[in-house]
Design brief:
The protein is 41% helix and 16% strand. It has 317 residues and is α/β, with parallel strands linked by helices. An 8-stranded parallel beta sheet has the order 9-6-5-4-1-2-3-12, with helices on both faces. The chain has a two-stranded parallel ribbon with strand order 7-11. Strands 8-10 form a two-stranded antiparallel sheet. Helix 2 (26-37) links the parallel strand 1 (17-21) and strand 2 (41-46). 45% of the residues are buried.
């Protein structure tokens, strides 16, 4: 039995059949590891058959496309809980936020409703109800939240502040010699590791909660994050400040004259970095440790991953 408090906090999850959508992303991989560690019977939804080698032995791999609902038939058969970290980070192949973050998740929800899934855990973003008014990506996510809330399936929305992987851009900029922050850099965020978000998702699944904001243990200004990035590189800090008004104006202009895959990421980044993004602290992973591992070259490995057992790769075909 695991001695990690992140998995021991949800003992009743042991033995339950779960489906993870978005399993190949940053959070999805941590969710799979946490669920396996908690003794769940895990099925993952992947787009391509070759992605089956990315998961621990014993994980059931289902191949299907959320943008093609017919390929999902059977994905939720026998499943007790669906965990969805499904969403677009970088748009490819012409798909939009509405195609994946809304319609893709909605297709999964409708399937869950038809097969008797008892709980649906969805990962959105902190301050989603406010950000949806101005941010295209969040609008798609929160439109799905509306559908999820209206569904007969019991559900919970987990709202992280920002992932360690997102903060990695500070580390990249520091390695190149300068970090750019918006405004004075004095707004705060308590970023959270994928492992700690995954643990929060397990706790949420095993609770009566319906909406769970969650952040990491350390509240940091963006200026402090920039300095931590330079410290990880053992370099003196060189921080450049971009006027808030300028970056907001640029984001708005791009929204008028460029396609969604161009303006969308900047629109989201501008919105979250020009407001306070702090949530109740959770977990025990620290951003400075993550930065140090990344610089040391050990941050990209995921222990325990290997090829699935024979016969575990399935599709609806």
């Amino acid at each position: 039995m695991s001695t990690d408090p992140r998995t021991d906090s949800s003992p009743s999850m042991r033995g339950r059949r779960v489906l993870v959508a978005g399993a190949t992303g940053y959070l999805g991989r941590h969710l799979v590891d946490a669920l396996v560690g908690a003794g769940c019977r895990v099925r993952v939804l992947v787009r391509r058959r070759e992605q089956a080698v990315d998961f621990p032995s014993g994980v059931d791999v289902f191949v299907g496309q959320v943008t093609e609902s017919a390929t999902l038939s059977g994905a939720t058969d026998g499943v007790d809980v669906v965990f969805s970290a499904l969403g677009i980070t970088r748009q490819r192949d012409g798909v939009t936020y509405m195609d994946v973050d809304y319609r893709g998740n909605l297709a999964l929800l409708r399937l869950a409703e038809s097969t008797g899934v008892s709980r649906f855990v969805y990962v959105s973003v902190l301050h989603g109800p406010d950000l949806r008014k101005t941010v295209r990506l969040v609008s798609a996510k929160e439109k799905f939240v509306d559908a999820l809330t209206a569904s007969p399936v019991s559900s919970v929305v987990v709202r992280p502040t920002g992932y360690f992987s997102d903060m990695g851009e500070f580390l990249t900029m520091a390695g190149r010699g300068a970090v750019y922050v918006f405004g004075g850099g004095h707004l705060s965020i308590n970023p959270i590791s994928g492992r700690d978000v995954a643990a929060a998702c397990l706790r949420a699944a095993d609770s009566n909660a319906t909406d769970v904001p969650v952040g990491g243990p350390d509240v940091l200004t963006y200026e402090a994050i920039a300095r931590a990035a330079f410290a990880a590189h053992r370099m003196p800090p060189r921080i450049r400040h971009i006027p808030r008004g300028l970056i907001v104006a640029v984001a708005r202009a791009l929204a008028w004259c460029t396609p969604e895959h161009v303006y969308g990421p900047l629109q989201f980044l501008t919105a979250v970095m020009t407001r306070e993004m702090t949530a109740p602290p959770s977990g025990s992973d620290h951003l400075a440790d993550y930065f140090a591992r990344q610089v040391a070259g050990t941050g990209k490995s995921t222990p325990g991953h290997g090829a699935p057992a024979a016969g575990q790769v399935r599709s609806s075909a």
